[in-house]
Amino acid sequence: MTEPVENIQVDAVITWVNGNDKNWQKKINAYSDSKINFSSENHLKRYNSIGEINIAIRSIIKFAPFIKNIYLVTDNQKPQSFASLKSLAQENGVNLELVDHKVIFRGFEEYLPTFNSCSIISMLFKIPNLSEHFIIFNDDFFVMKEVSVNDFFINGEPIIRGKWQLFNENRPLRKIYRKVLTYLNIPVKNDKISFKKRQQNSAKLVQMDKYVRRFHTPVSVRKSTLINFFKKDPTLLRNNIQYRFRNKNQFLISSLSEHLEIKNNTYHYRNYPQLTYFRSYKNLRLTRLKLKWFKKDQNKLFITFQSLDMANDETLDYILNWINKRLSKN
Fold first, then answer.
1. Are 201 and 256 in contact (CB under 8 A)?
2. What is the DSSP code string of 207-232?
3. ω before 113 within 30° of 0 (cis)?
4. What are the DSSP calls for 71-128, one per residue?
5. Calpha distance 287→285 (Å, rounded)
6. Taking residues 104-132, what's their average pLDDT?
């Protein structure tokens, strides 16, 4: 059996916004039809931050030593700790670089400013000097165990983590539901903007009859796959980034990339996420157990803490102490 080839350069790309930035808050409210009350609990949950970006970057430097370039994509913002993060990166032979939206939207400036993560991610492949192979991270994706190139690419082909699913309209229960509503003469609402829906839009662009519903893990991408696709119809990219805010008609470019690789049979599939996922922090005992199990389970590589700022002080202190021990451990 041939051993996987690891001698390829792989970059990391992270999109980030500081939702606590007053200038950014004024900017988004200047363009939003419905003004955002940043002091409300709902909006604090979406836009608040407790320094997750620092953890994300430190985790890549610590546990993914094969990555030599980390690109942090922002809207004229910089983490307070950026200087120390850059120094840490340099000490480990890593280039940490800020990339402004104006750079990746060059030639498409009419769509700025944008507050739409779907539009922003659509332009990541235009980062100057970006390697052919790159990994897209969210700022709440943390690598918490040693990883290698082969956890993301095998012989240069991306690993796709997710579950095959039918499109919403093809699911048996959904069909019955729609028939009942039609029989009762009740309009079928189809305007929900969801992550799942945008993944389905992406698969349909590639003419798939079902799709891979992705796990909440980093995404492995080949730049040439996207370049070659948009060469055939450049209007697809322009149409996708025209929305300053999320729109139900958009596709998710990371999901598009995955389905293009599937269509070309240039991918490696894993139906298990290698992930420990947190979105509730009410039970400290359960949090401890999940973190303990993560350390023991050799298959787990990633941790996602969604809306970590919503944890109570005791749970938050425990989690942050656990993370700091992992990242400072020699």
1. no
2. T-SSEEEE-SS-EEEEHHHHHHHHHH
3. yes
4. EEEESS---TTHHHHHHHHHHTT-EEEEEEHHHHTTT-GGG-S---HHHHHHTGGGST
5. 5
6. 97
CA–CA dist 211, 209 (Å, integer) = 7
CB 217 within 8 A of CB 299: no
Q: For residue 321, what pLDDT is reported?
A: 95
**Rounded to a whole number, what is the distance in angstroms from the first to the last CA of the chain?**
34
Nearest partner of 299 among 161, 101, 129, 155, judged by Cα = 161
| Paired residues of 143 in beta bridges | 302
State pLDDT tens for residues 22-38. Answer: 999 999 999 988 888 87
Secondary-structure class of domain 10-159+218-246+268-328 per CATH: alpha beta
Task: Decide the pairing of beta strands 211-214 and 275-278.
Answer: unpaired
d(CA 20, CA 131): 32
Query: Cα–Cα distance between 296 and 145 in angstroms, integer?
Result: 11
Average pLDDT, the chain: 90
Distance between CA atoms of residues 24 and 21, nearest Å: 5
- Separation between Cα atoms, residue 303 and residue 327, nearest integer Å: 13
- How would DSSP label each residue in 144-190? -S---GGGTEETTEEEEEEEEE--GGGSHHHHHHHHHHHHTT-PPP-
pTM: 0.90
Judge contact between 86 and 71, C-beta under 8 A: no
pLDDT digits 0-9 by tens, 86-102: 999 999 999 999 999 99
Burial pattern 66-97, b for ≥16 Cβ within 10 A else e, equals ebebbbbbbbebebeebeebbebbeeeebebb
Domain spans of the chain, in order of start: 10-159+218-246+268-328
Cα gap 27→61, rounded to integer Å: 32
- CA-to-CA distance for 218 and 316, rounded, in angstroms? 23
